[in-house]
Structures are given as C-alpha cells and as structure tokens.
Amino acid sequence: ITVVLLWRSHEEVTTSDETERDDWVAVRLGRDQKEYVDHRGVHVVVGHYMGEANNLQNPPNLTEELLNSNMFDPRPNQGKDGQPVVIPSHELLKMQQLFHINRFNLMASDRIPLNRSLPDVRKKRCQSKSVNLTGLPAATVIIVFHNEAWSTLLRTVHSVVNRSPRSLLQEVLLVDDASTRAFLKEPLDQHVAMLPVPTRVLRTHERVGLVRARLLGAREARGQILTFLDAHCECTVGWLESLISRVAEDRTRVVCPVIDIINDDSFAYVRSFELHWGAFNWELHFRWYTLGGGEIKRRKQDITEPFRTPAMAGGLFAMDKDYFFEIGAYDEQMEIWGGENLELSFRVWQCGGSVEIAPCSHVGHLFRKSSPYTFPGGVGEVLYSNLARVALVWMDDWKEFYFKFNPAAARLRDRQSVRSRLELRERLQCKSFEWYLDNVWPQHFMPKDDRFFGKIRSRESGRCLQKPVGKGSINQPVGSATVVTCTAEPNLLQMFVMSPSGVIMTDESVCLDAPERDDSARQPKVRIMACSGTGRQKWSYSEQTFALRHASSGLCLSTGPDEALILQACSGHIGQQWQLESVPWK
Ligand code: LR7
Ligand code: MN
C-alpha cells in the first residue's frame, strides 16, 4: 500500500537528521518542490504545491502609486523562527491583489521583521563541527536586483549581516539593475548607510540583466571571495564559513549552499533535503536530480563533506574573485535572465575547476511560479539566445542535439557571435563536453554514441512509447508509460535512450521501470520512474525476436489494454515485439 501524505503549505515538513535517509528515492524534483518515496514506500513531499494567494479571480489594477509605495509594516512575531505568516481573513482580498506586484505574497513578506529569526537547520554534525576562521579570506556579498520588494531585499541583507562572522564579511554590494520603484533609490541608500557592515548600492544606467549587473558588482568588489545571492534570500547560521573555507582550501572550487525554500505564499522557511544535485534536461533547463552513486557513498562516510554537482542553480554561490576573472567571469552577451548558470558550470568543470554543494551551508530562496519583471525583447528571445550561446560555446556535437529538439533556440543560433568565448575556451585549453558527461555526470541521459537513441515502436500497432505528459501532479507522482500515435516532428516525449547496461531512460532522468517479480494476481504495470540504478530498471533487447525483456522478472514488455503497457510471460507474440528506431541528430 502506498500512503500519500499531503501537506498544505501552512503545515510543511521540516526534516531532521532522523528523517532524512539516503535510501529515499526521488520521484520528482521540481525547482521548488521535491517528492520522494521513502524505504517503506511512503510518499514524502517537501515544498509546496499550491499558493493560495496566487488564485486571484480579478486581475488587480497596479497603479504607479501602488508600485512606488513601500508597504513594509513589520509585526514583531510574524514569521518568527521561519514560521508561516498568518493573514486575517478580512485582509485576504487585499493580499491577493498585492501578490501580483512581485508574484509572491507581498503582504506576508511586509509583515515579517527584517531581522526575523530562523532555526538552525543544519545537520547536528554540522552544528558541532566548527570552522576555524583564522586566516580565512573575507567575502564581498553581491546582490543584484530589479524592482525587488523592500522587505525581501532588506531581509536578505540583514540576514547576511546578522548571520555572517564579521571577519569573513568585507562588504555587501547591492546592484540596482535600473529599478523604477521610488523606494529603491534614496530610501535604500539611507537605510544601508546605517548598517554595521560597509554596504553600497551600485546602479546600472539602463536595464542590463543579471549577468552584467553581477559583473558590475564583481569588478567593484574588494573582498577576495565573491559571494552571490538573489535579492530574496535568507541566510542561516553557519552559511558563509562553510562556503569560504572550501574556496580557501582550493581556489578553483565554486561552492553553493543547500538551497532551502521560502514559501511564496506563507513565507515559511522550509528546509530542503541534501540528497540532490543540480544538472539540466534536454531543453537545457536546470533541474535537481538524485545524487550520483559515487557521491552518495562518499556522503555516507561524512554527511558534512561537500559533494560535487554537475551544475549550479545559478544565484547562490561563492568563488575566488581572481579565479572568477581568470576563468572568464560571465558571458557579457547574455541578457536579462537564464543560461548563465549552466554556462558557468560547464566552463568551470571543463576548464579545470569544480562545482560543489556544501551541506553545512543552508540559505533560503523565495521560489516563485512566474517572473514579475519585463524581459525586453521577449522572454523567448532572451532565454533561447542565452541558451543557444551555452550550446554553441560549450557543448561540441551535443549542440546539434539541443538545436534539433529545441527549434526556438535553433532559430536564434546564427545570430550569436560567440567568437570571443570560443577563444577563451581555446586559451584555457578546456576539456570537451564528452569529458564532462563521462566524468562529472556519468548518470546523465544524453544520447552518447555507445547507446541507442530514438523511438520505441510497437510492431503490433505502429504506435510509440511515450513518457507521461506534463510535469505530473501530487496525485500522479509517477506516470504510467503509454503507447500512443507516433509524431513525425521531433518530440522529446517519444525519445528514449537505451544504455549499454540496459537502462531505458528519457529526459529528466526517468526510466522504464517495473516491479521485481510477477505479482501473479495482476499484470505488473510498467511505469516511468526516477532512475534508480536498480535491477527493476534493466532491460535487454533482442533484434531477432524484437522482445524487450525485463531483467529481474524475466517477463516481456507487452502492449496492454488501452494505451497501457504491461509485463507478461515472454511468448514472442506481436504485442511483445518492439522496433528500436534510431533517430539521428548529428
Ligand atoms: O533583469 C534582471 N535584472 C536583475 O537584477 C533580472 C533579474 N535580476 C535579479 C533579480 O532581481 C534576482 O535578484 O537577478 C536575480 C535572479 O533573478 P530571479 O530571482 O528572477 O531568478 P530565479 O530565482 O527565478 O532563477 C535562477 O536562475 C537564474 C537564471 O538566470 C539565475 O541564475 C538566478 O540567480 C537563479 N536563482 C537561484 O539559483 C536560486 C535557486 C533557484 C533554484 C533551483
Ligand atoms: Mn530568485
């Protein structure tokens, strides 16, 4: 039996040493929500799945006056210790309207003091392991923002000031990326002038996007360590020393904290698991995945040890300032938002550095479901141009794979001039993308030459195997594999990779999965589940009989009723015959 535990956003779970286990299987790891099945088959969800304030019936009228007014109105106990804010029912309508300004519950945020307390969410072993601060270099904390709310921006700054060892904090640099809100001008300058740590506000002359805003901050920084944060974060105790000590040991390390969740509705601080690392999907979107095998083993020895990650989320990390510039800073031609996180991750790994997550450093980030600000030039143009640049510079042959399945980026490909970035790659003598896949992310699901890539077609109906559509939901955490009409145009949902070891996987690290044994009464359902590396996800294919045989049960993949797939004793009948149709992409 599978017990599904649902938490409303106001009753979220905080995990502790005792409940977080390495044998949990990730079912789905969204940006702001993580779902696991634990060792007893109990389904655990961390994060939220529904913002109540977000369900607005009538679109609000966001007047200039409203946008320019600072409604910060702190109440001493609201949000204390990371608890959710409670808004009385007579204010709910107003709350819903204010939600649209920043795409988070502004009224809730504005009621929490700038110095709110947060629990020490670190593992006990992190708490007892003290970092020796003597001789450690100090950091410049750089926070770029565009039209951020007063309360979230300053709570970020105050949490840095309050919870960083003074000797490690050289200064805070705020970079205002051409915000238009009045309260982010003189009032902000005046507020930061009173802080006990040198804090300055730099301003861009026009909207330059987060990459060039961060570059402005980096060039002005006086600290030896650059530490970047988004403008809506809250740091917890111990966050900075755990990052800086790693960089001090090896200047080519880029170190990220564990990113906890600040709920966009209640502003509750929700501790996240440390069981995942960052990578990307076939659309080059950042995703969390279950930690790779080697890192899990290393973690079992010492859960306080930082672990390597194929990619960073982008906003929260520390690195040596000189190394930052030596290795090419950022691609200045990246606009507004997106792509720079993968660009930096690929570059650091391929050019001799490393990216890691320090489990003893926890920082909360406010996750939103949509972006509140404008994308001059259009969201698609901006994002896909940035991603096209990543592919063109760093991915070698795999850029063709990306462009084939992402026509929106392919259209912008020829407009990019990437010569100076390719020269950088040449000058630094960086390794290939293949090296990155083999060494940094061996668990990847990219179509390397040693594996089948294409469609899996039923010889009975001519239909194709398809991954469940959509991001899934709480009610359908794992999807059933289906057999549907094959599409002619490139369709990522119908593309599968079969590795030499017999794992049939597809985008986002999900694998064709079936129960170990024949559960005689029913025909075992074939599903698409998070890849786990276990025997229940191994298959073998016979080019003679066209059978796909499930390794641990010895049964064969068969078409079932409707669009379903089942396992049956192998008989060789037409419903058990599959054509593996390669789709070329190079
Ligand atoms: O034009 C802009 N100018 C800016 O100064 C656009 C944005 N910004 C600022 C913005 O105010 C914010 O402080 O840049 C920062 C990041 O923008 P967000 O908060 O809208 O980004 P995000 O949190 O949705 O996105 C993640 O991916 C981005 C890709 O470009 C950046 O790398 C973000 O820093 C990154 N955030 C994180 O890594 C936090 C954890 C997310 C996860 C998983
Ligand atoms: Mn952010």
TrEMBL record:
Its main location: Golgi. Residues 450-581 form the Ricin B lectin domain. It is an enzyme of class 2 (transferase). It is a single-pass type II membrane protein. One of its GO terms (biological process) is protein O-linked glycosylation. Keywords: Disulfide bond, Glycosyltransferase, Golgi apparatus, Lectin, Manganese, Membrane, Metal-binding, Signal-anchor, Transferase, Transmembrane, Transmembrane helix. GO terms for cellular component: Golgi membrane. Coiled coil: none annotated. The keyword Calcium does not apply. It is found in: Golgi apparatus membrane. Pathway: Protein modification; protein glycosylation. Its cofactor is Mn(2+). PROSITE patterns: RICIN_B_LECTIN. One of its GO terms (molecular function) is polypeptide N-acetylgalactosaminyltransferase activity. Its EC number is 2.4.1.-. Belongs to the glycosyltransferase 2 family. GalNAc-T subfamily. PANTHER family: N-ACETYLGALACTOSAMINYLTRANSFERASE, POLYPEPTIDE N-ACETYLGALACTOSAMINYLTRANSFERASE 3. This is Polypeptide N-acetylgalactosaminyltransferase.
